[in-house]
Specification:
By secondary structure, this protein is of the alpha+beta class. It has 13 helices and 19 strands.
Length: 497
């Protein structure tokens, strides 16, 4: 029987390493993850224009460990998939990342110490290629350094490209397990911390036949939304493999508000660790879980948007009622509630939402705003006379997003309710002393886009209904009264009567 010798072209091996790690900055991430696999608790990175040094306090390597380190495709990390001391899930898999370092430097040195064994291996690209197919790397046995514990230091020399510290930090944040216990990484003396985002947090945990899928989605405030680093980080063994959108790319500008991470350690990754093997059942199960999570995020985002709009509408209604109150005080003859004295300077609707002004006499004007979530029946029973309650109401029940505020003059007044009555419903209507404003009406929707027209439009609708209360039989006269009330509601310096 004859045997064919199998040789490895080392120049091709370097090329494969460079292609597998398309960004040469990946080599720093690889070195940090090697330290994590070696049960290091601290990793110190030093960067200068001349060299890059990655030093850890892990378990170090003995002679056999160094052989494994330079053995490409060793099954060591597949057979032993957890670290010896902290039982960490091992991140490294193929052992080819060290050759990618040769795309950024011409030489690297590995110094390691474990127990009484200490050694240095020098990997010079030019000398290594001159040796043909041989794999002889210079190994220098050294006396152990009694002043330092076990660990490994890798130094990249004769750099062929420059690295920006911000770029290195970003890659380490994304690609190393910074959130793991007992693991700290520093760059030039400064600790690198996981990215921290503020916003509405949505944690999730789903079990599958292959293992758990867990993580957290964050809905950022509109003010901090950014088009950079979009998508959700998908992590395997605490390392970001890639960012996925899971359909978020169809959300338009809203996608800039979505961030987060998901952990699924059972996902099979591609050889270059930049993606996933998607034709397997593991990835299909994972996608079904994430589709469910994204749907939940969509529902919560809509509720948050509704809450924000409710706050805007409440603010606009509050200001509109204040302006109407002032206008009616200036025009007591137009008020359906009788004469109303003008409130003093500095008064407004603020604080706890209740404002009152009392003089020595009785019956002075009082303006109140109470944010409520009452049903239409509760509002009508508290405000309307009995004969109104006998009428068939136009609204059976208010929605949870309804806004109800009250404007009171002495013992009289009105309640104003902003709610959803359909885009084909009336713009506004009145039942008894309750004014209803349709938030879904196209005109309301259009004017609500800008705050200045928002308040004007709500004030217009309130003065319209108040004017009709004064005289429902003469709409033309009511329109004339509304024009005067609306004008006086927006004059800057109203005359005092």
């Amino acid at each position: 029987m004859e045997y064919l010798p199998v040789t490895v072209d080392k120049s091709h091996l370097i090329t494969i390493g460079e292609r597998l790690y398309s960004e040469s900055i990946e080599l720093i991430r690889e070195l940090v993850n090697n330290a994590y696999d070696a049960d290091a608790t601290e990793v110190e990175i030093k960067m200068t224009d001349e060299y890059i040094e990655v030093k850890d306090n892990g378990i170090g390597m003995d002679r056999e460990g160094l052989r494994q380190y330079f053995n490409i495709g060793s099954p060591e990390k597949i057979v032993k998939n957890r670290s010896a001391m902290f039982h960490r899930d091992l991140i490294g898999q193929f052992g080819i990342g060290k050759f990618a370092s040769l795309s950024a430097c011409e030489c690297f040195e590995v110094y390691t110490q474990k127990g009484d064994f200490a050694a240095k291996v020098t990997f010079d690209k030019r000398d290594w290629e001159k040796e043909g197919d041989r794999w002889n790397l210079p190994l220098q046995i050294l006396p152990p350094d009694r002043e330092r514990s076990a660990g490994t230091t890798v130094t990249l020399l004769r750099l062929t490209r420059a690295f920006e510290p911000e770029e290195v930090v970003r890659k380490i944040v994304e690609g190393t397990p910074l959130k793991a216990q007992n693991f700290v990484v520093r760059l030039n003396g400064l600790r690198i911390t996981p990215r921290s985002l503020s916003g509405h947090r949505i944690p999730f945990l789903e079990g599958t036949d292959f293992g758990p899928v867990h993580g957290e989605i964050i809905i950022l405030p509109s003010s901090t939304a950014s088009p950079e680093q979009l998508g959700i980080e998908v992590k395997v063994k605490q390392v970001t493999i890639r960012r996925e959108f899971f359909g978020l790319e169809h959300w338009g500008k809203l996608v800039s508000r979505i961030r987060g991470e998901v952990h699924a350690d059972f996902l099979p990754v591609t050889t270059d660790r930049s993606g996933f093997i998607q034709d397997g059942s593991q990835y299909q199960v994972f996608r079904r879980v994430m589709d469910k999570v994204v749907q939940e995020v969509d529902d919560i985002l809509k509720r948050l948007a509704g809450r924000k709009e409710k706050q805007r509408a409440s603010k606009a209604l509050k200001e509109a009622l204040q302006r109407v109150h002032r206008s009616l005080a200036l025009n007591p003859d137009l008020s359906p509630f009788g004469a109303i004295p003008l409130a003093g300077e500095g008064e407004g609707m603020g604080g706890a939402g209740v404002l009152s002004r009392k003089s020595d006499g009785e019956g002075k004007g009082k303006l109140q705003t109470n944010k409520e979530t009452k049903t239409e029946r509760e509002v009508r029973e508290s405000e309307a006379p009995k004969k109104v309650r006998k009428k068939s109401p136009k609204v059976k029940r208010l929605t949870p997003n309804a806004i109800v505020q009250r404007m009171k003059f002495g013992e009289a007044g009105v309640s104003v309710c902003v709610d959803d009555f359909g885009d084909n419903g009336p713009e506004c209507f009145t039942e008894g002393t309750v004014i209803y404003i349709n938030r879904q009406h196209p005109l309301y929707q259009r004017e609500a886009k800008r705050q200045e027209t928002y308040v004007l439009n709500v004030t217009r609708l309130i003065t319209q209904e108040v004017s009709l209360m004064k005289d429902t039989k003469n709409p033309r006269l009511a329109f004339s009264r509304q024009s005067k009330l609306l004008r006086d509601a927006f004059i800057e310096n109203p005359p005092h009567s």
